[in-house]
Write a structure and sequence with these properties.
alpha/beta; 5-stranded mixed beta sheet; globular; binds zinc ion
Length: 371
């Protein structure tokens, strides 16, 4: 049985809550971590139509990007719409989990999806919030079992360097051990010093994946007691943070980039700041409301920033800085992450053999209409 807490842990492998901004409020907001889950609904936010969909589809958990409990709650009056939605969740026994600014930094989610929509194939973090350090994991495996342990580690996020997976180094050697009373050794017998052909298998693992990698490694390893070491590394870690920046393979006009985004985000309209004929090569993106990325984008040499919720004076600032802006709308700049987040959950659940259905909300809507 998969629980709310287990699914929360899967999301936190992807987007650790420690990555969220200090003003943010992420994590399990409503529900019992021990409650069973058969169906999950992934949505941008909890609106009345999304809640109705969760009820209709008998979902046990709703996963959203915008936290419905955001500022400190002073009252839970059911004559206000946000509190009434929380009441409905509780009465129906539906749990709610929010991954917000931590999801923006997670690989393949909001910012990365917007970068892909803009046509970027390679990009880096625009505003660093930190870096993900690596550890070296060394484990001693009896010969013949190294591939099983390697597969388990690779599946749990270890051994990834750039676009390469399954990166390990393996060296043969001899392991010794003496099984004491009360043991049930895989090789050898109690009270006799054993010498075993073993492989020293070493790989790297990002800090956030250490627990899951060690769990997967222990499950795949045949020994009763597994000898392994974790070493902190001084190598620079993988940068994480807000916004992305990269160069298009082919420069396009600002108008062409606007058309590309309209099509990728299925929106009839975007707002454009700057000369539509201007050639743009270096593109920055910022999921959600990204006006605070105008200066970092201009400073990093971007020709254009793609984001949402740009206000009048912020548009003027961008012009002054020589930066074009395409405002695709807050909704469009984030709703694209619903699909990859649902896909991640499906893949992660399948890896553990969990029979949980993950749906992408169909009832999510941009509150703005274009007339
Ligand atoms: Zn947002």
């Amino acid at each position: 049985m998969t629980t709310v807490g287990a699914i929360a842990a899967y999301i936190e492998e992807l987007a650790p809550p420690a990555w969220a901004e200090s003003w943010d409020n992420v994590g399990l907001q409503v529900g019992d971590p021990a409650a069973p889950v058969r169906r999950v609904l992934v949505a941008l936010e909890l609106t009345d139509p999304v809640l109705a969909e969760a009820e209709r589809e008998e979902c046990d958990l709703v996963v959203v990007h915008h936290p419905p409990i955001f500022r400190p709650l002073k009252a839970l009056r059911f004559d206000s719409a946000p509190a009434r939605r929380l009441q409905r969740l509780i009465l129906k026994g539906i749990a709610l989990y929010a991954a917000h600014t931590n999801l923006d930094q997670a690989p393949g989610m909001t910012n990365d999806s917007l970068a892909v929509a803009a046509g970027l194939t390679a990009h880096r973090v625009l505003r660093r919030a930190g870096e993900e350090r690596y550890l070296k994991l060394v484990v001693f495996v009896p010969r013949g079992h190294e591939d099983a342990v390697l597969e388990a580690l690779a599946g749990a996020g270890a051994g990834h360097i750039g676009n390469y997976s399954h990166c390990t180094f393996q060296a043969p050697g001899t392991g010794t051990f003496l099984p004491l009373e009360g043991t049930n050794p895989f090789i050898g017998q109690q009270g006799r010093l054993e010498r075993a052909d073993e492989v020293r298998l070493e790989t790297i693992v990002p800090e956030s994946a250490v627990d899951q990698a060690v769990r997967a490694m222990l499950a795949a390893h045949p020994y009763e007691e597994v000898a392994y070491d974790l070493y902190p590394l001084a190598n620079p870690g993988r940068a994480r943070g807000h916004g992305r920046i990269g160069r298009l393979e082919q420069p396009v006009s600002l108008a062409e980039l606007a058309e590309r985004l309209k099509s990728a985000l299925s929106t009839p309209c975007v707002r454009v700041v700057g000369d539509p004929e201007r050639r743009v090569t270096t593109v920055a993106v910022g999921a959600g409301a990204g006006s605070d990325l105008i200066r970092p984008a201009a400073g990093a040499g971007a020709d254009v920033l793609v984001t949402g919720d740009v206000r009048y004076h912020e548009a003027q600032d961008a012009l002054d800085l020589g930066l074009a802006v395409i405002d695709v709308g807050h909704y469009n700049a984030e709703a694209i992450a619903v699909r990859p987040l649902a896909a991640y959950l499906r893949e992660r659940l399948a890896r553990d053999g969990a029979a949980v259905e993950v749906r992408e909300a169909q009832a999510g809507r941009d509150p703005f209409r274009f007339m």
